[in-house]
User: What shape does this take?
Amino acid sequence: MLRLRIQRATWPRPALILTDTPRPDCPKCGGDGDFEEDYGDHGTGEYAGTDWNLCTCWNITRSWLLMPLPRRPRWLHRSAPVRDPWASDEPPF
Assistant: This one.
């Protein structure tokens, strides 16, 4: 059974895609889509890190293109953030 949602993708080009989501009642991952496993060194048994494993209730590669989105024109790209003219550094009275 598919649990679909709409997302905005940015690569390889801007688009709206329909994707599968993890099963919310999955006992393995609890609806997150992945779960962690801690592992240790073989010799000492001390903690060495954590592996993140994708759950089998979700296929991350399953997606369908709904609609490509246009790219922003070059003149709309801004290098500096726009300052709010009503913003003030003074404390309120």
User: Anything to note?
Assistant: Residues 4-69 form one domain. The mean pLDDT is 83. The radius of gyration is 22 Å. The chain has one domain: 4-69.
